[in-house]
Amino acid sequence: MEATVSQTIQFSTWIQPEKVGRRPSGSVSVSRPLTDLKKLRVLVSARFPASKASNRRKNVALEVSCCYNNFPGSVVESENYQTPFDEALLLKSKSEEVGPYLDGRCVYLVGMMGSGKTTVGKILSRVLGYSFSDSDTLVEQEAGGISVADIFKLHGEDFFRDKETDALRKLSLMHRFVVATGGGAVIRPINWKYMHKGVSVWLDVPLEALAQRIAAVGTGSRPLLHNDSGDVYTKTFMRLSSLFEERGNAYANANARVCLENIAAKSGQEEVCDLTPAAIAIEALEQIHSFLKQKEGL
Ligand SMILES: Nc1ncnc2c1ncn2[C@@H]1O[C@H](COP(=O)(O)OP(=O)(O)OP(=O)(O)O)[C@@H](O)[C@H]1O
Ligand SMILES: O=C(O)C1=C[C@@H](O)[C@@H](O)[C@H](O)C1
Fold first, then answer.
1. Which domains occur in the chain, in start order?
2. For residue 39, what are the contacts with CB-CB under 8 A and spacing of at least 6?
3. Which of 148-157, 188-197, 225-234, 284-293 has the least mean pLDDT?
4. Nearest CA to ligand 1 atom 31
5. Which residue CA neighbors atom 9 of ligand 1 most closely?
6. Gap from CA of 103 to ligand 2 centroid (Å)
7. What is the CB < 6 Å shell around ligand 1?
8. Of 95, 140, 167, 248, which sits 20 to 30 A from 81 (CA to CA)?
9. What are the pocket residues of ligand 2 if the criterion is a CB atom closer than 6 Å to any ligand atom?
10. Closest CA relative to residue 288, chosen from 191, 203, 200
11. Best CA proximity match to 97, nearest among 295, 298, 286, 297
């Protein structure tokens, strides 16, 4: 059931100054002379706004104040926090809605390296009750358990691409899988023939955010980003930009697009980096739903 009025939770507790291990970051002023520290109480109040289905993130107003011997003191801390507290519920309800439309068809996530195909794909598979597969991992297994980076080094990119196509062909015969595809899977038209057996979703993430994510973990496992010199963020950003120029149109072949800039704008977030994988998965379910409804002429 949805809350239609705002709710406030309050509790108070005694302060035991001798047990406060660190120096306080603010000071308290009270309206009476402070003689008995045992009468100093702290009051914590959190106000949750009324829930609206369209608002995925809520502003929770948190206030910490003090009172002495039941006389009010000053507010120590007052802040608005954004909380994604209903993401789990939304994920559940959206997946229940989309499940019957998908009817066992696989979901293929496409997008640039680092766009979150694995992270979001695992969430989607869990809520849909699907299995999860990663085409890069299948290729690694097929190549005898060596990493993608080593496959590129030892056998070259064409060999990798052939194995990738073979992995997608095998997956196209399966049902109830969420598949994280390799970042370059979109460049071969034959791969689309396989992916169109299911529903494909493009995770469209700004290049700056991709470069930040990849720079944070290093480029070692991503052979197409690993050769240039310079600082990691800049070289990653430059290389991703040229790859995107070559591939942007190919990603747009996907049945549905999940654009992080659009999600941020809808939910009042300033930065796409603040979007949680769950919020992105919810948008993916919404986009899959509208694609399938449109396809069925609903
Ligand atoms: N919404 C998010 N916010 C912040 N970091 C994220 C988010 N989604 C994924 N990441 C991080 O970005 C990195 C890449 O994510 P992930 O491996 O899911 O992407 P991918 O598309 O599968 O990448 P690749 O195609 O290179 O295998 C990981 O370190 C992951 O923790
Ligand atoms: O974008 C790409 O071309 C690639 C992305 C990775 O997922 C791997 O499939 C491989 O490193 C190539």
1. 7-83 (no CATH), 87-295 (3.40.50.300)
2. 68, 69
3. 225-234
4. 119
5. 116
6. 29
7. 111, 113-119, 136, 180, 183, 213, 217, 222, 275, 277, 280
8. 95
9. 113, 136, 148, 182-184, 222-224
10. 200
11. 286
130: Cα separation from own chain's centroid: 18
b/e string for 178-196 if b means 16 or more Cβ within 10 A?
A: bbbbbbbbbbbeebbebbe
pLDDT digits (tens, 9 = 90+) for 235-258: 899 999 999 999 999 999 999 999
Residues 27-53: what's their mean pLDDT?
A: 63
Task: Quote the ligand 1 centre to 13 CA distance (angstroms).
Answer: 42
Residue 209 CA: which ligand is closest? 1
End-to-end CA distance of the chain: 27
Answer yes or no: is pLDDT of 227 > 60.
yes
pLDDT: which is higher, 75 or 213: 213
What residues have CB less than 8 Å from 219, skipping those under 6 apart?
225, 226, 232, 235, 236
Burial status of residue 22 (CB atoms within 10 A of its CB: 0-12, 13-18, 19 or more): exposed
pTM, 2 dp: 0.77
